[in-house]
Amino acid sequence: MDALFEVPTPRNEPVGTYAPGSAEAASLQAKLAELAAVKHELTITVDGEQRAAGGDPIEVVQPHNHQHVLGVTHNSTDADVADAVAAAKKAAPAWRALSYADRAAIFLRAAELIAGPFRDTLNGATMLGQSKTVQQAEIDSACELIDFLRFNVAFGEQIIADQPRSSPGVWNRFDHRPLEGFVLAITPFNFTAIAGNLPSAPALMGNTVVWKPSPTQQLAAHYVMRVFEAAGLPPGVINMVTGDGQAVSRVAMVDPDLAGVHFTGSTAVFQHLWRTIGENISNYRAYPRLVGETGGKDFVIAHTSADADALVTALVRGAFEYQGQKCSAASRAYIPRSLWNSGVRDRLADVAGSLTYGDVTDFANFGGAVIDRRAFDKHTAVFDRIRNDATCTVLTGATADDSVGFFVRPTVVESTNPDHELFNTEYFGPILGVHVFDDGDFDSVVAQAADAAPYALTGAVFADDRAVLARAGDALRFSAGNFYLNDKPTGAVVGQQPFGGARASGTNDKAGSWQNLIRWVSPRTMKETFVPPTDHRYPHMG
Ligand SMILES: NC(=O)c1ccc[n+]([C@@H]2O[C@H](COP(=O)([O-])OP(=O)(O)OC[C@H]3O[C@@H](n4cnc5c(N)ncnc54)[C@H](O)[C@@H]3O)[C@@H](O)[C@H]2O)c1
Ligand SMILES: N[C@@H](CCC=O)C(=O)O
User: Fold this and answer.
1) Ligand 2: which of 135, 144, 191, 326 to mutate, judged by most atoms within 8 Å of the beta carbon?
2) What class of enzyme is it (predicted)?
3) Which of 5, 100, 173, 220 has the most CB atoms at less than 10 Å from its CB?
4) Same domain, yes or no, for 469 and 373?
5) Which residue range(s) make up the domain with 74?
6) What pLDDT sits at residue 1?
């Protein structure tokens, strides 16, 4: 049917509380038990068919209980990826011929399925597979993913409605075509919402997709794929391949029909993908669109006028929720000496030291484990270096225990050296570096912090003095794509704080906004002249 429709006005999904004794807590606990009791076969999905990939097996475990295997996935082979690419190309003509309303309806339906019957499944899979507490899973795999799906439909409509002007006797139009070819979505372990958004955003705009999730997020990714199917997504529109990505790099990245890459993950991997495209640039049918959101070294800078309680709460939540494994996590703080000595140091160390990290199925815990052995080893190596560094004082933490799960304690380290690795290296875990400065040095500290790290993702300033907030905001203008005044630097909400950073943090195409979706269309400008001229001569020719 060809008609003009107005899409439903999106609203942010309310966050469930899962309070002790509540029906929602009981329902989720039952689902957690059900998911943990099964050893899942975590397949690829190509052209609507599920099958095991042909490469080496990979065990997907609970990070907080690494002996518990949740399922087995396999590395995809070159042939698996080639099949997925072929399926995406085959599905493209019918998918892009479908009206925007029909495509949008599928993703709106997916949002309602996640809000309803699939909510516990996605939350449970995210908790068990990625070691998120119920609060952290709820804001991710339920609310943020639902929000992406609902808001993207409205943003897509806004893009389609944006049309050029027309002069008398002429009708100018934009035909917002999808890209020619297929889009490759490569997603990180830490957010189920990002994993669901990266393939679905280009698909909404009419593209077909090959999606490779992270092996450590594969349990939740498996169920996101089932949601898309249950919502009526036709076979081949989103094809999921599994494993470490090597075959994707060998096959999909160099395919002449690669139309775009939608990536979130580390800076190093994105730069590798970009280089691969650069090396093959003359082999593609069109220039592939590159959208990548990557690492961060996110700051909190306090002024003497800051509220100490708000500052400590923001540091604890910003640095230690989800074990610091958010690209937005506070990982470096700059605190004036008077504030530090009048209680902030002791309260921060006390609260951080009291946080409980454990089995996330016990809802009383504040956090879980880091994602895998590699992350665990990286943190213990950092602790070894810090302990042997005279510029560093550990206030709490710097211990780790992998006997049951990959547990790393919330760690606060004070360093007298603002050029220390604590202030420029992404660890992606629960380590907060603190530099304490003389009260009068605020402006010079802001200037140093602005460029101390190669990243520019998130950052926050705490002050009660408006002139200070304004001055710091100017000095830090290019140091964070998401900038917070008197709030923690994590927890962006779709439609409210469009998310993304610049410099080494990515292309800043703002997930959860029209600015991301516009990368997945290639407009054709059309001009129709109703009564075309029939004489080639101009008036000045007499
Ligand atoms: N800026 C953001 O919005 C944002 C959001 C979430 C995470 N992150 C960043 O992601 C990182 C953590 O996530 P991660 O550990 O999953 O990142 P990662 O870079 O290790 O992996 C990301 C994805 O790339 C795949 N991959 C790795 N090598 C590949 C290759 N050669 N070819 C193809 N695919 C390959 C992985 O399997 C995974 O699916 C952190 O740096 C974090 O800051 C950024
Ligand atoms: N958008 C999330 C971070 C995503 C990266 O890991 C936040 O704002 O905390």
Assistant:
1) 326
2) oxidoreductase
3) 220
4) yes
5) 26-294+506-524
6) 62
